[in-house]
Amino acid sequence: MIVKTLNDVIGTEADVEARTWRSRRLLLARDGVGFSLHDTVLYAGTSTSMWYANHVEAVYCIDGRGELVDDETGERFAIEPGTLYVLDGHEHHTLHAHTDVRTVCVFNPPVTGREVHDENGAYPLLVEEDA
């Protein structure tokens, strides 16, 4: 059994911050559960372009408002509390945060916590043995 609180993660190496977002990574590959789980805040007034070429990501909005754009089709989706989106086709996408947008994100395969977005907005596929 694994029991953690958000406060257990804040200020550790699993608390990762970039220019447009902050991700508190509650479960990582080393936890051995087959997925990773993140509490992520995208900052108000920012736009973040991403592409998870090596992962499927599910994102559930729990606070804030924004807009998701499928960069491949141009489709736009309102993001607000209660909205779920899943990048099951490895879509290039941009999230425009109108307010701070707080989400719960699940990655499969799980991330190790060392990944950073590359020049394409993608995470490399790292495994825990690479540590």
Automatic annotation (TrEMBL):
<dbReference type="GO" id="GO:0019491">
    <property type="term" value="P:ectoine biosynthetic process"/>
</dbReference>
<dbReference type="InterPro" id="IPR010462">
    <property type="entry name" value="Ectoine_synth"/>
</dbReference>
<dbReference type="InterPro" id="IPR011051">
    <property type="entry name" value="RmlC_Cupin_sf"/>
</dbReference>
<comment type="pathway">
    <text>Amine and polyamine biosynthesis; ectoine biosynthesis; L-ectoine from L-aspartate 4-semialdehyde: step 3/3.</text>
</comment>
<dbReference type="Pfam" id="PF06339">
    <property type="entry name" value="Ectoine_synth"/>
</dbReference>
<keyword id="KW-0456">Lyase</keyword>
<protein>
    <recommendedName>
        <fullName>L-ectoine synthase</fullName>
        <ecNumber>4.2.1.108</ecNumber>
    </recommendedName>
</protein>
<dbReference type="GO" id="GO:0033990">
    <property type="term" value="F:ectoine synthase activity"/>
</dbReference>
<dbReference type="InterPro" id="IPR014710">
    <property type="entry name" value="RmlC-like_jellyroll"/>
</dbReference>
<comment type="similarity">
    <text>Belongs to the ectoine synthase family.</text>
</comment>
<comment type="function">
    <text>Catalyzes the circularization of gamma-N-acetyl-alpha,gamma-diaminobutyric acid (ADABA) to ectoine (1,4,5,6-tetrahydro-2-methyl-4-pyrimidine carboxylic acid), which is an excellent osmoprotectant.</text>
</comment>
